[in-house]
Design goal:
39% of the residues lie in helices and 17% in strands. By secondary structure, it is α+β, with helices and mostly antiparallel strands. Among the domains are: 89 residues, no CATH class; 78 residues, 2-Layer Sandwich (GMP Synthetase, Chain A, domain 3); 43 residues, no CATH class; 54 residues. The strands form 4 sheets. A 5-stranded mixed barrel has the order 3-4-7-5-6. The chain has a 4-stranded antiparallel beta sheet with strand order 11-12-13-14, covered by helices on one side. The chain has a 3-stranded mixed beta sheet with strand order 8-9-10, with helices on both faces. Helix 2 packs across helix 3. The longest helix has 45 residues. The protein starts with 14 loop residues before the first strand and ends with a helix. The C terminus is likely disordered.
Amino acid sequence: MSCNKKHIPEPGRGFTMCDCTADLHVEPVEGCFKLHETPWLEAYPDNIPTDIFEVRFKNTRRSYYKNVNNLDLKRGDIVAVEASPGHDIGIISLTGDMVAKQIRRTGFTPFNGEYKKIYRKAKPYDIERWQEAIALEHDTMIQSRQIAADMGLDMKIGDVEYQGDKIKAIFYYIAEGRVDFRELIKVFAERFHIRIEMKQIGARQEAGRIGGIGACGRELCCASWISSFSSVTTNAARVQDISLNPQKLAGQCSKLKCCLMYEYDVYADARQTLPRVREPLQAMDGEYYLVKTDILARTMSFSSSKDTISNMVTIPTSRVREIIAANRAGRKVESIANKDDMTTVEEPTFRTEEDSITRFDNQNKRRRNRNRRDRDRDRDARKRQAGQQSGDNAASESKSDTPKENPNREPRENREGRENRGRDRRRNNRSRQRGEGQRREGGREGGREPRQHKEQE
């Protein structure tokens, strides 16, 4: 854009609109729209020239149109295309050989075998009217939800998309069952003065239109590349030995995650080659029970206890087949673990020490331990030295500060005994004086009471 102002991309459509000048200017923005593709064949010449282009609209709505006027179109151009009725405004998303591959992947079939037409590149008047229609979408969705709730319809209106010429709008809704919305369409037409098209979508389609980040940390598959949804059941989780935890298996749409089906075929094919263990394996040292199975690694883990995991041994499936055949023949194997199949992990040898990726691990640990021991040794030496110095200083100070005792002075034990006896004598005198004072006060009070009684008499 020519201006330096930072413009916010339009969510769901992937473009920025600059109205700083007299003419509106629209520029596509990569990564701000749903179902985005990588045009990896764009730099190569077309093998089969085609006049079919892919045009994207709001969120996940896309369609294919024919360039009947031989316009010079490229990826990112804003065009006016045929609609019923009127025309719509969209952005060219794919051109050339990629269009045929995308049509084959999505299974798109044109209505009555004819592709709709691309009329022209969008003019400033078309873009202005398109911008006005986009500005009405949010308020229309809020009002339509309120109207549907007032009419008591069991449905949820998830999104509203206006046509580029502002004469028609598509209302996307979710409902568990069949909804009779004939009266609702009449109310919408009277309120918004446009043509109404109701389109029912599922929970997965709604999640794709809204978008978000999945548990894997990437953008939702339904918003980035999935255009057709297949049925997902809990059997896919069982085949892949995934814990049947609803919180882990459900996606943001509250349905089972679509990614559960990505590796389902691989696990199903691998399971067919695994032996079926219906009984514990018989060995000389006891019975072994199946604990778990690693389908892709083709290994099985057995435990010597039925209730707890103890003495667990992991063996390949080929060894399991041999043990099952021996048990059916009435023989017990010496050990379920074959010594030939037990592989020991050896540390690889390197030509030079610099080639080893673990060359720093042990050295750093040894160096750390050695540094720690050196620090501890130095700390202990400093403490001992400081203790000796403080002891010497204290001894010298005590010798210099303590006065020499007088040989004629009374011994310390006799002094302490005399002081204790004097302290006890003083304490007894104080308690005796306190008792006499209390008796004296009691006598005074006792002498007053008879006078009071006499006066009363």
